[in-house]
Amino acid sequence: MYEADGAGTDRAGAERVGAGNGTGDGSMRVLVAEDEEVLAELVATGLRRAGFAVDTVYSGDAALAYLGLHDYDVVVLDRDLPRVHGDDVARKLVADASRTRILMLTASVSMEDRVEGLDLGADDYLGKPFDFPELVSRVRALRRRSARPVPPQLERHGVRLDSVRRTATRDGRELDLSPKEFSVLQILLEADGAPVSAEELLERAWDAHADPFTGAVRVCLSKLRSKLGDPPLIRTVQGVGYTL
């Protein structure tokens, strides 16, 4: 269980983070807005190990800046943020009719606090301390309710991806994919044959710290092509992107 203060945060949090390793979660992007930096980074690390692309900020104004720059599926939002209060971040998202779902994460856990947070526009509310598996489950549930729903199964050219069981096969052969490769394959399948640019792949499957000039997308696609096997399925559309 995560504690909200002190050295216990480090020890208990690190233990929970490890428990989420390797579950994978498709092309999902999450912003963690939490002023306690140690807790923010522990939560972010665990979510990344669960397969999410995650960015962290420690103030309300930074949260608004990131939300204005990137298309997030979910924001894990602490209410008591400095400079711009978490409640005002929630109000701004609601006013902008944002598709980003809000999971409020806070030490204020009375019924009145929960009602107030939900009335502000939060989609879910989780009190500190919390169990990490519950946080991951709630984030996944919010993703399913987002404006860009993911079909349970995607299939094209013999490739079948199950977004619930987190499995992928080609012609019945199981594909041993990393969370990032799973994300990229899911995005290509969702496009249903339309080309997807490297920029969109980078935006949806990597976090804000990914350097667009590192060739991360190209390297990931090379590994994914190898695992998919022959005949080749992923085609490069010169100057446009990639298609499956």
What characteristics describe this protein?
elongated, alpha/beta, single chain, 5-stranded parallel sheet, 11 strands, 244 residues
Detailed description of the structure:
By secondary structure, the protein is of the alpha/beta class. 42% of the residues lie in helices and 18% in strands. The strands form 3 sheets. A 5-stranded parallel beta sheet has the order 2-1-3-4-5, with helices on both faces. The protein has a 4-stranded antiparallel beta sheet with strand order 6-7-8-9, covered by helices on one side. A hairpin with a 4-residue loop joins β7 (159-162) and β8. α1 runs parallel beside α2. The N and C termini lie far apart (42 Å).
Tell me the overall shape. Answer: elongated
- pLDDT average, as an integer? 79
Sketch the major β-sheet: 5 strands, parallel
Please state the CA-atom Rg, rounded to the nearest Å. Answer: 19 Å
Point out poorly predicted stretches. 2-26
Sheet with most strands: strand arrangement: 2-1-3-4-5
Number of DSSP strand runs:
11
Q: End-to-end span in angstroms? A: 42 Å
User: Helical amount among residues, as a percent range?
Assistant: 40-55%
N-to-C order of helices and strands: HEHEHEHEHEHEEEEHHHEE
Instruction: Provide the structure class.
Output: alpha/beta
Q: State the helix count.
A: 9
Per DSSP, what share of the residues sits in E-state strands of 2 or more residues?
Answer: 15-25%
